[in-house]
From TrEMBL, chains A, B:
Catalytic function, reaction form: D-sedoheptulose 7-phosphate + D-glyceraldehyde 3-phosphate = aldehydo-D-ribose 5-phosphate + D-xylulose 5-phosphate
NCBIfam families, sorted: tktlase_bact
EC number: 2.2.1.1
UniProt keyword list: Calcium, Magnesium, Metal-binding, Thiamine pyrophosphate, Transferase
Protein name per the record: Transketolase
Cofactor: Mg(2+); Ca(2+); Mn(2+); Co(2+)
Keyword Coiled coil among UniProt keywords: no
Organism superkingdom: Bacteria
Enzyme class of the recorded protein, top EC level: transferase
Lineage, broadest ranks: Bacteria, Pseudomonadati, Pseudomonadota, Alphaproteobacteria, Hyphomicrobiales
Domain Transketolase-like pyrimidine-binding stretches: 352-524
Length: 662, 662
């Protein structure tokens, strides 16, 4: 058997596993795995530094299947190279509930799935984050501990999505030379030929962002290998355009959109078996081919052992710190540092915007937690995301801790996800809350994957003032709270901001959004309490002077209004409690007893939030009084806007008293 | 006064109006208007075909300030050229509540504001839609009635946003040669130099998408004029890189990020007055300069009159149709066509997916309403957006009615907004509902602007099956319902789908989203009713057999489950009503009497929707039973998934009976 024969048979193993799994499921995408099998075979048999038996090895190469619909390509590779999570039984149960082999690759389902892909363009942007993480950690720990490549396989869909431009431009700017994108250039999309909707010269486009670009026949293993070799030596990120035939081997459907997203049918598969000379029944891989794949899975075993030896030889303190960072654990003194800072806040009672409170907390956190990497989508001074410790990361210079992401909210969020997935880094990044919409698809994936990406969303209401309704979030708090497994924090003052940051850092399996004000707020937490009260999601901030006639629930900037309303109501003889609600999601996790007691039985329940009502009925009931927004905002000063929209202590008191006198 | 002196003084009028207005507001963005004043002066005095006294003239050139933060540039131009909506008083009250001169340009605030901009990248994509609309209408009505340019002024922020890539690639592909983008190439973003975050060769990038590109000194009026002249003759869209100094004229802050987004201060403005030789007090424009501007505002008056003459000479039927289309009114027979089709449906009772119902309704609608332009973000066969009438639009060929938008949800939605804003077209476009997140920023702007963009979102729940949680919307219905002025329709069968389409087309001031299933659904509306019942937002679909013990509220695919549960509950002696809830937003607009009666007093209230609970408390109260999703979905068959997540008639009956027996 020549080396080319062997390659072909190994690639065909991917093709038939994919065809057969899709056929059995009667659902899925055979076209990409068949078309990209040669690329994947070259990459995994000749280049990938990974160890299927030690799949979490920190210095492994990362492989991202950005075109996630081709999930059977990845599952085939993981099975063939010997990852224990992906057995033949898993492949036979492709796309069935309870199996690891979901329709699209799901992070957490199996070792070797480096990220959840499927929504197009996310994977390539994750890969940018991973490649950046690698360079950042390399700058700290050197080639001995961190020196790996990040490969992404992307299709036309990935490259048409706008997020890809953000990712490409950022990677080119930062000269992430260990990032290699393999473009499955097959001229086909779901609707038909790419030429129906696109004429872009992709190589020219990548080159415009200073990428190294190459083009090869994606079915020529030597050409692919030579290109990857060249890419690995480049001082810039590389895009290799691999011209392929989608559904390679399917006798009548190859090269058409018919092979993209559905089972081929028995006849077509039989034809493919004939065309590719594959005489084996479904799911059977001949032992010599399986052996060849399994042997290739051992390629990097020696490298892993050498790496472990180097790690063992590393200075104990540095090694411990490296291992701690990669584990995701916070420094041992983290809680103590926060406690000390909270004591200082209780004494100082700063009257600042929560975006400033956040910056102050970050100054403490970034001093204690060296693995945070900050950034902003070109709103550094407004998002207050930069602290004294976070020097800039620049092209070729990765020792810093701050990324100027540019005006690229979506690319930022997806790159943050990539950094979090890589490990060793806790990424946070800022923009205006209204632009959370731009980042939302990546924020959703952070939630679905259960990773620690922290989104800093300032200018969180009409309180931002004159920029007007395009910039004033109204529905965004509700829309973010709607995402499962996503903690939305809206702190009311500097102490709450600190507690929310503590919770965000401690939530290793849940991403967080911090909603922060532009405007100054008084301290509402004036006594030091060691316990993190925000961990309850909602808690009684001010008790009623007697049996409560009114309970006011509020978050963030509106807690100040709630306290002012309470003072007026109590002066009028109406005992009033105030409940601060920094995080709906954590409140829902409390005991029923806690929740019932906190909501209480005051005859009048009011919620105040400078946003829409959606979600607040949970606290105040359908007959509760909501003081907030009922539509879009307006351009004006904050002094004009709050009264204009009736979000004032006076309006609250008036509404409460009208209800009490009923 | 030389012609250059005159130009300079006219441009300086923009600069000082902008500086002075921002200074008075103590808020705003002087840098762009000062930097781009020369570009704008050349464009508006030598090229723009518009008539300030007839600002809605259908064949005017469109000018889009994509860099919307530079709103004072636009307000200055509108005031100076004589638009009545923007008076000097408006400019003096820049960014104040109750004035037309909002922080960012708001469509509807004043004639001459062609679109709402501010969220970066949207404007350039709107402009692509406008330019496409122009070509589409030109293909129908010829040069005599439709023959204008679309100009967009974009900054670095617009070009860094991913949406710009989608827009650029689409425009280049479609050869929209009457689109001219002026790039305010000032090397500055908020965080500092562009070089902090970007190194893209923008001309090369546009060229990669087959644009014509030019570069000029953005302060040289003759060079700018020559470039615009050349652009107007191009057979491709043109990007003119105009190298400018941000804050041109500010003595110490020009060319820095300090001049971008805040008032310059009295001293700096005094220095600018000196540097630019402007001896006039704030808001005073010398009469010769104002006269020169006002005269330029009359430049196209003759062209407008000629156009009106051509319109008057046009065949009466064609003219009436053109005028009807541009007015936004539907054809007179529209309701009759729908009524006839509903009768057919009542007879046929088709059991099809609502995505198919939608296609069937569109087949009727597209036959009756020639101004619809369909499309999909590369999911034509899945979204069922193409009908027999909608032939493809292709590069240079605009007589069709269907746009292959490519895998560009965000660009599609923003281009649709541009088409709706242009007038004469009703755009609809499809993708999977989970990818509404990608399009969301543009969907929000459609809502804020109050325009008729119609978003077709298929695969609206776990019902899509094996593609898994990345593709299964769970929070999206709630998140879309959260957007103000956005009608989210979720029809339960073919009749409801038709009624929802009717409502979407009739809602000229509110965009719509149609949430549609992948899976087949039975007809739940089996009798012909002339009235559009979906117009109530929610209505009683099945009465209880006796005094209702249970009311079940459901939408879309879950109405079938509600009806099955009703049958079982009634068989067990529990009279049960079913309320179909196709549109929350329209329900809220009904009278309190209607709403109270519809919700009713059944002791047990249940809502069923294969999505999260958020929003349903409005119908069932906090103690109501919710049958739906509590987190992300899973990859599996629909037959596995509904029982797995407990969304079945049996689970509904069990929950109801447990409550009834309490």
């Amino acid at each position: 058997m020549t080396s080319r024969d062997k390659h072909d048979r190994m690639a065909n193993a991917i093709r038939f596993l994919s065809m057969d799994a899709v056929e059995k499921a009667n659902s899925g995408h055979p076209g990409l795995p068949m078309g990209a099998a040669d690329i994947a075979t070259v990459l995994f048999t000749r280049f990938m530094k990974h160890d299927p038996k030690n799949p979490h090895w920190a210095d492994r190469d990362r492989f991202v299947l950005s075109a996630g619909h081709g999930s059977m390509l990845l599952y085939s590779l993981l099975y063939l190279t010997g990852y224990e999570d992906i057995t033949l039984d898993q492949i036979k149960n492709f796309r069935q509930i309870g199996y690891r082999t979901a329709g699209h690759p799901e992070f957490g389902h199996a070792a070797g799935i480096e990220t959840t892909t499927g929504p197009l363009g996310q994977g390539i942007a994750n890969a940018v984050g991973m490649a950046l993480a690698e360079r950042i950690l390399n700058a700290r720990y050197g080639d001995a501990l961190v020196d790996h490549y990040t490969y992404a396989l992307a299709g036309d869909g990935c490259l048409m999505e706008g997020i890809s431009q953000e990712a490409i431009a950022l990677a080119g700017h930062l000269k992430l030379n260990k990032l290699i994108v393999l473009w499955d250039d097959n001229d086909i999309t779901i609707d038909g030929a790419v030429s129906l909707s696109d004429s872009t010269d992709q190589r020219a486009r990548f080159a415009a962002s200073h990428w190294n670009t190459l083009a090869v026949d994606g079915h020529d293993p030597e050409a692919i290998a030579a290109a990857i070799e060249a890419a690995r030596r480049s001082d810039r990120p590389t895009m290799i355009a691999c011209k392929t035939t989608i559904g390679f081997g399917a006798p009548t459907k190859a090269g058409t959109s018919k092979v993209h997203g559905s089972a081929l049918g028995a006849e077509e598969i039989a034809g493919a078996r004939k065309a590719l000379g594959w005489d084996f029944p479904p799911f059977e891989i001949p032992s010599d081919i399986l052996d060849a794949w399994r042997v290739s899975g051992l390629n990097a075993c020696k490298k892993r052992k050498e790496w472990e030896a180097r790690l063992a030889e590393t200075d104990a303190e540095i090694r411990a710190e490296f291992e701690r960072r990669m584990s995701g654990d916070l420094p041992a003194n983290f809680d103590a540092v926060i406690a000390e800072y909270k004591q200082k806040l209780a004494a100082d009672k700063p009257k600042v915007a929560t975006r400033k409170s956040s910056e102050m907390a970050l100054e403490v956190i970034n001093g204690a937690v060296p693995e945070t990497i900050g950034g902003s989508a070109d709103l550094t001074g407004s998002n207050n995301t930069k602290t004294s410790q976070t020097k800039p990361i620049a092209p070729g210079e990765y020792a810093g801790r701050y990324v100027y992401y540019g005006i690229r909210e979506h690319g930022m969020a997806a790159a943050m996800n990539g950094m979090a997935l890589h490990g060793g880094i806790i990424p946070y990044g800022g923009t205006f809350m209204t632009f959370s919409d731009y980042a939302r698809p990546a924020m959703r994936l952070a939630s679905l994957m259960g990773i620690r990406s922290i989104f800093v969303m300032t200018h969180d209401s009409i309180g931002l003032g004159e920029d007007g309704p395009t910039h004033q979030p109204v529905e965004h708090l509700a829309a973010l709270r709607a995402i499962p497994n996503h903690n939305v924090f809206r702190p009311a003052d500097a102490t709450e901001a600190t507690e929310c940051w503590q919770l965000a850092l401690e939530s290793t399996k849940t991403p967080s959004t911090l909603a922060l004000t532009r405007q100054n707020l008084p301290a509402v937490r004036t006594e030091y309490v060691e316990e993190n009260l925000c961990a309850y999601g909602a808690y009684e901030l001010a008790t009623a002077d007697g049996e409560a006639a009114v309970t006011i629930f509020a978050s963030g900037s509106e807690v100040e209004i709630a306290l002012a309303a309470r003072a007026q109501l109590q002066a009028h003889g109406h005992p009033t409690r105030v409940v601060s609600v920094p995080c709906f999601e954590l409140f829902e996790k409390q005991s029923d007893t806690y929740k019932a007691a906190l909501i209480g039985n005051a005859p009048v329940k009011i919620a105040i939030e400078a946003a829409i009502r959606m979600g607040w009925d949970r606290f105040i009931g359908l007959d509760g009084i909501f003081i907030g927004m009922h539509g879009f905002g307006a351009s004006g000063t904050i002094e004009q806007l709050y009264p204009h929209f009736g979000i004032t202590a006076e309006a609250t008191v008036k509404a409460a008293e009208a209800r009490l006198s009923n």
